[in-house]
Backbone:
């Protein structure tokens, strides 16, 4: 007999009126990112909640594109935070570059995985 899992409480929808200036910013980012205003507000909230600057937004978006699931943007924010914990003593400009390189590497590896899966080829990677 399987164990019963505790039920997660559903998270209530959060609604707010952003007002003039914040609403304009949300509209601006929605246009730049080509997403809905609601999704732009969610992404800006996720970035802020993870204490990430807008400089990391492109890297987070690229990383989110490699992930699966409804919360992929939030998951990508968390992954970037883990990356930043490893390099927190370096200057901000270098942190952005390090995160970008890591995201590009992750994307390449995901591309290799997809190619291998499509071609049913066996590949072994060895550390040198």
Residues:
């Amino acid at each position: 007999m399987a164990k019963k899992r505790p039920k997660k409480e559903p998270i209530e929808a959060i609604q707010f009126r952003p007002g003039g200036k914040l609403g304009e910013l949300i509209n601006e980012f929605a246009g730049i990112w080509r997403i809905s205003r609601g999704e732009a507000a969610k992404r800006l909230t996720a970035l802020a909640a993870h204490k990430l600057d807008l400089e990391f937004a492109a890297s987070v978006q690229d990383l989110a594109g490699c992930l699966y699931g409804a919360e992929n943007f939030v998951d990508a924010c968390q992954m970037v935070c883990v990356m930043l914990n490893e390099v927190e003593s370096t200057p901000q400009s270098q942190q952005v570059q390090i995160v970008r390189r890591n995201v590009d590497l992750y994307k390449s590896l995901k591309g290799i995985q997809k190619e291998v899966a499509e071609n049913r080829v066996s590949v072994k990677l060895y550390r040198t």
The mean pLDDT is 84. Residues 53-120 form one domain. The two ends are 47 Å apart (CA to CA).
